[in-house]
Amino acid sequence: MEVEQDQLRLPTPPPILHAPTLRLPPPESTPNFATVEYPAPVSSVDSALGTIGGVERAAVALQNHVDGAPTSRPIELDLDPENRFFHTIPANVASTHNIVCKVIKRRRKKPKRDVDGNIVEEGIYSIEPVGIEHKIARFRAMADFQYYPDIPVNDETFLLAEAMSKLDVKGIRTYRLSPPSEDFPESAFIPPPAFSRHRLPQNFDMRPAFGTTIQTTESGVTRLVHAARSKTRTIRSIMSFEEHVPAGPEEVLLKELGREVPNAIEARLMHLLEERPVWTRPAMMNQLTPAEVKMAHANKSQCWARVGYTFSDGPFRDLIVRFGYDPRQHPEARFFQHITLRNPENVRIRPQPGMRALSQAHFSGTKPNTDRASNLSHIFDGKQVYSKIGHFQLCDISDPLCRSLIDSPDGVLDFCSSDINEGWYAYDYFEQIRQVVRRKWQGLLNGIEVTTEDCDDLLRWQCSKESRVGQGRRRAAAKATNALTGVAPRKKKGAKKAEGEAPTSEHGGDGEQDEQDGEESEEGGSGSGSGSEGGAGTPSQKGRPWTSKKPIRTAPWEKPKAKRSKAKQPETEAQLLSRLSRSARRSSVRAGMSVTPSASAIEEEQEGEEQ
Q: What pLDDT is recorded for position 406?
């Protein structure tokens, strides 16, 4: 099929029309233009200018206006100048650079009309730039509430206001206060200068916020709930006196999550709780890979509440416990009790050789054969310290000495005590374990490996196998510490002994026996104190260790610290002169020089000679 050549040609483009260009007159030859946006239809320009104070007042306000600075004479719109109670509307003056144009419309005197008589020709328009306006006044504020009091014709207060506004001296002098009465007129109540504090309208729509949904609670109350809000759920906590433990997560949590199947990180934590029913949170985090740790931190608001519960008090406080498992009913749960140690010196531990390389290799993607130091922070082996924070479970302590004390059946109670320092162990036995771990751990922090001989004073405790629950408050910890350090316990100030009563010791013996005990304790117990942190510790039934002639070495970190001397007060002028005079007298006496006697001394000598 042949196509004609004219059909293949492109259409002719329309001619290019250039917009007309006009030049602005020079600024020196043009007046200063300003615009006032009047918020009402204008039928008379003079009347409209009168409501804003006239041309002169508006010109002064526009000329003296500076952006961001308050003005003493603003432009105000007064729609009722005769009413003194009318609240004016202030104008907002802003800077602008609009072009002022003069529009001219040319038309015939006799315009052309069609058959029906309608004007056909609209006219010819021409535009001429005149200058640039620099200020513009806009009335964007809302009108204030208006107050129209019902004032009588001859009201004294209103007549006084009229006389003061017109500077009528005669009217001011004729004003007299009306006699007091309970009939208060409206003119006695002075209205405020403004009723509303908000000048601009609030951008408020009668619609709920974006992203909210309407939900009905179980009680039938309708609430607006944000769909993307952070739903934080803390782990469920129970008290030690509650009989039953949670068997699973809360139904409210499962309803908010919208699923019953656990995700990957929750399944991993549940698997760890199946292997061991009680964990500390750092110990569980140490079992995870870096990717799993990151996922656990991202979902910490729901993953911990999804996998287990915790106790808010007692020996298993702050531990993650598997749902349905009650450590208070199983004696083997004593190995899951934890020991928390403080580091008052905040000693910075140095990384062990090769640990930094292992950490870098772990995060770089390689898998070294040995464990990282950060994965062993919950373990205490008595040889190395992996963290400056001591938080260990008894099952994670592998030191031979500590392990022998933990596995010993001595001191295990028949029930689980609710005391935070007991649990399945008697108080004295658990305190002995904690003090041994504490001494070894603090020794490693100071770079010293503590041996069994260094803990001889702690191992010689005669511990009680009874629980202290229900026995009241006992202050045997101070007695035990004093007996180990060779310091006599303090006596109460008000304690008095009866006449003829032999001085007895606190253990029931006489004074001689106390002296012998004191000598023995000085020979064998001059070493380290074993008081617990927080006022706990009962080394024996009466706070008394076994005596031994073997000297006990004191660890450097357990030696009493020297007290800091108080800052020396500045010496006054009188003290300085007194000190210099005493020094001069001593030096003169040593040199054999005679000291000139004072006048009072000479008079005393003369009186003595006369007598």
A: 92
